[in-house]
Amino acid sequence: MTHLTNLVEFPALGLSFPLNRVAFSIGGINIYWYGVCIAVGMCLALVFAFRHGVEFGVDADAMVDVILIGVVMGILCARLYYVAMAPYNYDSLWEVLAIRDGGLAIYGGIIGGFLFGGLACKWRKVPVLPMFDLAAMGFLIGQGCGRWGNFFNQEAFGCNTTLPWGMYSEGTYNYLLSVQATLAAEGVTVDPTQPIHPTFLYESIWCLVGFVLLASHIKKRRFNGELFLLYIIWYGLGRYWIEGLRTDALMVTSTLRTSQLVALVSVATAVVLLVAGLQRFKGAQLMVPLQVSNLKKLDAAGTYFVVDELPASASHHEFVQATAAMNRRLEEFDLDEAEKVEDNNDNGEAIEEGNVVAEPQQPAEAPETPAPEDEAGE
Predict the structure, then answer these.
(1) Containing H/E element for 249?
(2) I need a surface site. Which of 46, 115, 118, 343 has the fewest CB within 10 A?
């Protein structure tokens, strides 16, 4: 079995080591580090989502279906986005779908993941914007880990640099040599024999720092969707800067980089929506409806069962306890008694308040405003 290896060097740091793209083999099938890094990122994102889902009012069981659909469609869209933008010809459907050698465009994954994840939320009755907030932090974890797959593949790197962490390998040499003339025609000079920017590392650090910042803001958010907008802004700013360093960027035209254009548009849109949201909910405290485990029974109970809420600033322990108590109360709720109350109300009969269920509260009527007297001379 032939394992693809690269001798990776960091000359200024005095580091040099062989890097095998294959992590291990099962039954003669190679499992690449690229896939392992993506899988690790997904697993860590799932752990975070299941741990903190209760603080967003998202039911864990329903979230499984949403995440599964979002992940699968995100990966598919990331590949299709790359294939659509890449200046290569693919000879077969298998080549289009083969991702072991890389070729995933993250913005395609973001668009596909959130689009189809949002549709799955509607199907599974999961609150969309709270789920987007939770998923945004999961994306930062996944991207922070997944970018290391580019390191093992020796791809997605930048132009030459004299910085101490400049990287060199046979992979960087061969690629820069193959595109040297093309880049020169665009006004970019590269030397294949010199170290390059490890842009995968820049993006990994940027995403992980963004995750820490957003995680620290969970209790301070004022409206649903705020963390999602902050993610779009944070990632877009970093991606615009990092994309300018890369030598393998997907291009809209000969001078316009696809990811930079998408980053600019998405950041500008997210900033407008964020400012509008902060203005609208200025001084307000976000109340989070607790997650309901039995939606069918909740629908049957109608207005006779009220879902509890907690402020977003409440602790994780408070959310767990309050959610468990509310769902126990829902399980003990007597639907037959509620139906009797509703039938008697329909017949205009008075019902005494019982131990199990009471009449639903009706909104208080607004007091009538007396008509103003006509002013003299009118």
Answers:
(1) none
(2) 343
CB crowding 320-343: b at 16 or more within 10 Å, else e: eebbeebbeebeebeeeebeebbe
Longest dimension (CA), the chain: 103
Helix (H, G, I), strand (E, B) or coil at 310: strand
- The number of angstroms, rounded, from the C-alpha of 83 to the middle of its chain's C-alpha atoms is 22
Rounded CA gap, 208 and 139, in Å?
10
The separation between the first and the last C-alpha atoms of the chain, rounded to the nearest angstrom, is 100
Q: Is the pTM of this model over 0.90?
A: no
Give tens-digit pLDDT for 237-265: 999 999 999 988 888 777 778 899 999 99
Question: Shortest CA distance to 193 belongs to which of 162, 169, 164?
Answer: 169
C-alpha 157 chain-centroid distance: 24
Measured distance CA(29)–CA(35) in Å, rounded:
13
Pairwise CA distance, residues 129 & 281, whole Å: 15
Q: Which two tokens stand for residue 372?
A: 């103003």
